[in-house]
């Protein structure tokens, strides 16, 4: 059994930021892996047609493997798509293939087009999950709207660099719209500062600015810029298994611990 508190019900996180390259996928995969290493049962839903989260978790996502496209557009049960992550007990992945790129357009004309992921998750009963992390594409289209509707919590990774806050207003306005019309219980619970370079003044200024805007929503743990973090996915591993002693591994483990204990306090 695990040593971190298990949430009373499944915590569903959407990891979103319409900017690319801010650490959405890295954060989804590593937080999920860290939580699973402490006994939580965790599913990563890959909602980006690039399939980077599937790659990082060493789950097949080429050819005609059943994927999130088939779930969202063809009503395939999520049970038939979810795979166990190799060598990571308690960690699961619903992969994305490039087919998912078509979903953004095909969903437009579908009934309850914003609710398809929510329905798929509600019907999933193969494993009793503690956490779900939905890794979003870098856009605010229907895939991200599905994710925002399906989640109880929003996690925004923010890269500590110039222009970090640009575009955040647009994301937050979308979140307000989703709250008003689709999912009133969506909570911006977590902001994680990523790719922090302690040697630059700019990084600490950005971190300060984000903390003054968002207060306690921002995790105390900063994720440092670290080569080990960027190398791990090409070995199909999380940074905690790839290099457990690295600064990136320590930071993601600590961020996951913060999330687990914050949830326990709710
Ligand atoms: P997104 O999913 O938002 O597009 P990614 O998680 O794919 O962003 O990260 C973008 C790139 O930055 C990837 O190449 C990733 O390996 C790298 N990266 C992410 N976090 C770190 C970090 N803490 N240190 C170094 N490189 C990182
Ligand atoms: Mg990504």
Number of domains: 1
Fourth CATH level, the homologous superfamily = P-loop containing nucleotide triphosphate hydrolases
Widest sheet: strand order? 3-4-2-5-1-6-7
Radius of gyration: 17 Å
CATH topology: Rossmann fold
Number of strands: 7
> In what range is the share of β-strand residues?
5-15%
Low-pLDDT sequence parts: none
Helical content class: 25-40%
Number of helices: 11
Specify the oligomeric state.
Answer: single chain
The pLDDT mean sits at 95
In short:
The protein is of the alpha/beta class. It has helices spanning 24-37, 52-56, 68-74, 100-106, 116-123, 142-150, 168-181, 201-214, 227-231, 239-242, 247-265, and strands spanning 11-15, 42-46, 83-84, 91-94, 131-135, 153-159, 187-194. The site of adenosine-5'-diphosphate has 17 residues, from helix 1 and helix 9.
Write a structural description.
This protein has 266 residues and is α/β, with parallel strands linked by helices. The protein has eleven helices and seven strands. The chain has a seven-stranded mixed sheet with strand order 3-4-2-5-1-6-7, sandwiched between helices. Helix 1 packs across helix 11 (247-265), helix 3 (68-74) packs parallel to helix 4 and helix 5 (116-123) crosses helix 6 (142-150). It is globular and about 50 Å long. The two termini are 22 Å apart. The model has no long low-confidence stretch (mean pLDDT 95). Bound molecules: adenosine-5'-diphosphate and magnesium ion. Adenosine-5'-diphosphate binds at residues 20-26, 52, 138, 194-195, 223, 225-226, 229-230, 248. Residues 11-187 form the AAA domain. This is ParA family protein. It comes from Planomonospora corallina.
């Amino acid at each position: 059994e695990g040593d971190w508190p298990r949430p009373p019900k499944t915590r569903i996180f959407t990891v979103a930021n319409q900017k690319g390259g801010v650490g959405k996928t890295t954060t989804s995969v590593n937080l999920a892996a860290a939580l699973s290493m402490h006994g939580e049962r965790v599913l990563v839903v890959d909602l980006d047609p690039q399939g980077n989260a599937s790659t990082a978790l060493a789950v097949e996502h080429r050819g005609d493997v059943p994927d999130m496209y088939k779930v969202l557009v063809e009503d395939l049960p999520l049970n038939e798509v979810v795979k166990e992550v190799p060598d990571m007990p308690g960690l699961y992945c619903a992969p994305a293939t490039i087919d998912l790129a078509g979903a953004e357009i095909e969903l437009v004309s579908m009934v309850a087009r914003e609710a398809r992921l929510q329905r798929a998750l509600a019907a999933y009963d193969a494993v009793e999950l503690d956490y779900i992390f939905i890794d979003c594409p870098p856009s605010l289209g229907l895939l991200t709207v599905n994710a925002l509707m399906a989640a109880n919590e929003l996690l925004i990774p923010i890269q500590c660099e110039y222009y970090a806050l640009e575009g955040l207003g647009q994301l937050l306005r979308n979140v307000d719209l989703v709250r008003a019309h689709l999912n009133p219980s969506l909570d911006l619970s977590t902001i994680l500062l990523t790719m922090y370079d302690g040697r630059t003044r700019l990084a600490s200024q950005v971190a300060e600015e984000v903390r003054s805007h968002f207060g306690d929503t921002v995790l105390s743990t900063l994720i440092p810029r670290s080569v080990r973090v960027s190398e791990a996915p090409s070995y199909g591993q999380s940074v905690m298994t790839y290099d457990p002693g690295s600064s990136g591994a320590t930071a993601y483990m600590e961020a996951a611990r913060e999330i687990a204990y914050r949830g326990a306090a709710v």
